[in-house]
Amino acid sequence: MEIILRQDIQGLGYKNDTVTVKPGYARNYLIPQGFAIVANASNQKKIAENIKQAAHKAEKLKKDAEEIANKMGELIIEIGTKAGDSGKIFGAVTTLQVSDALKTKGFEVDRKKIVLPSIKQIGEYTATLDLHREVKHDITIKVIAE
Known about the structure:
It is built from three helices and seven strands. The chain has helices at about 25-30, 40-70, 95-105, and strands at about 1-5, 20, 35-40, 75-80, 115, 125-130, 135-145.
């Protein structure tokens, strides 16, 4: 079943994308929650008009995202956590911790836009920031023992 997304859904697509999903997923979850609408001719015309009107705003958002990515450059974030003798940390490093560390460096990034690998050991990791649908930026995360 083809639907048009009304907001970004991780793993499925971005706002105003037309995607194909199973009918039950669309009818029972996406459409009732207001995350999507059916991709019929009239809805596609409405979305096309909305995209045309929002093109200038979208360009500014993309430019802002590229600017943030350029300011970050090769950013390295250190996150201190409790760890055992073997280097295994207690718990895991979360997107909230990374978001807070970015905030202290002066970058406001929503935790939902951070993609982390599973971090359960002390060491260096690479996280991807999904700043815009066309702008992705990698940062290095150094996990150190406190």
